[in-house]
Fold this protein.
Amino acid sequence: MKDLYRCLDGYIPELLQALTALWGAAPAGEESQALVAALAEAMLEPQNIERVLATLSPEAREALQDVVRAGGALPGQRLALRYGGVRRLGPARLAREQPWRQPQNALEELLYKGLLFRAYDTIGDYYGEVLFLPPQLLQRLPAWLAEPPTWDFQPVPAPERARQDGPALAEDLCLILVRCRQGQVRLAGPGDPAKMAWPALMELDWGPRLAGKGSGARMSLLWRLLWRLGLVQHVRGSLQPSPKAREWLRLPDGPRHKGLFLAWRQDEGWDELRLLPSVRCEEIGWKNDPVAARRAFLEVLAHCPGETWLSVDALLQLLRRRRPDFLRSEGDFAGWYIRDAQTGAFLRGLEAWEQVEGAWARYVLSGPLRWLGMVAIGYEADERPTAFRLTALGTALLQDRPLKSFPAEPAQIDEDLTITIPLANTLYERYQLERLAEWRETTASQAVYQLTAASVWRSQAAGIKLEQILGFLRRISRDRVPPSAAQTLQAWGEWFRRVALRRATLLQTADEKTLDQLLARPELRELLGARLSPTLCLIAEEHVEALAERLQALGIWPQLSL
């Protein structure tokens, strides 16, 4: 930014004379440079600064504090949206109208008192007109101007109707991984798995298993999180859990929730603006930055007191006052092609703020932030969110506080092999239980499963031994498996061993002598199974390929009918 002398050097003589009188500068004749030097010296005197600050209107003092708190510079559009714009007057009109005598708003008051200056510069991703304080003047301003603003949040009564999702998002991600492991998420034909998987998920019958609402937008977010966290992979036409999924499931609840929050906050490909049902975005000539919008909104939300019901309307009023440009960070309220979904009319200008920015903020509060377990939402009869409350998780994540973690409580196993397991910090254990037991119900704090003869039979068919099942049950219950339950499992194991069904292949020879010769060869005998007749022999499915290769090496080329 330019220094104070260069800023003053561009002013017309009439404005310099007015500033000289305001700041009590010593007379310096008519020469411009001498006048600038004397004025700058006066403006840097602490007593003069205090005197001029005392003449400011409350709005001008607040605007100056905004600039000081931001480090000395802010986009002009952001300040104009809150305090009003500065008129663009040429030298002749400035000299004729002398706007410093009657400034139209707080920004003009600061500009014509020498407490703000204009320039074109870059702040972050923004490039355009900037209102700033020269470094010399900024360093001499009193410390109270830099004090943090007070955030006046008035609690409201608890709503009669409220929704809070808690850990539902992580629970449903685990459920999707279970369905993927079971081979239920099939992708139809070739194509990009990332685009094909979401329709495949939507086609599944989830029944009562989803912990949260199965809306299209929420399911879309679930899919985005699965893909961004690398929890699934494409394997021969279906989605399967990836190696990262096991690591993610093993995480304590706190770090897992934080990972979900960060994955959403930094997702450039999931845009809430284009999900708003009340607006329609034209895909021509403009783009928005969903990551920057979330970051700016969350910075304001982080000042809300935790575990306190607050008004959504009051939050939006504060957002409009503090960060009106949080969604359109370049201050371009005319160049975005956004239409009202019902009327088709373009939504431009600050007058459409409630329909665009306000609707976006309501959607993010009642959608992603609720789904992530960070807020509870209070509703009226028309489903319009009217109140919100930051949860303990939401407060910790927004203020970047450490998340507390507690060891999981043991599962309770009844004599009928009903398993009641707490939800907290047991996601990986329940993911494993899905292979062994049948789900019964999930409440706000626990899940209920039951081992049955059918579920244990399926697990053993999948290669899980009875000893492994018992060991797992002892671990999650801290060795509190009822003896009668263990005896039931042992009895089932005995029943399962009496009869076996296996996939196999038949080897058939032209005559009995040929089969005798094959059975006599040591290199073939280990791959041949039971002899069923003089010309038939069983071959285990896993030995077919090796047997074919050894027969070919002996010059025997089997006819394949597999």
Observations:
- The mean pLDDT is 89.
- Residues 155-404 form one domain.
- The first helix runs from residue 4 to 9.
- Residues 11 and 91 are 9 Å apart (CA to CA).
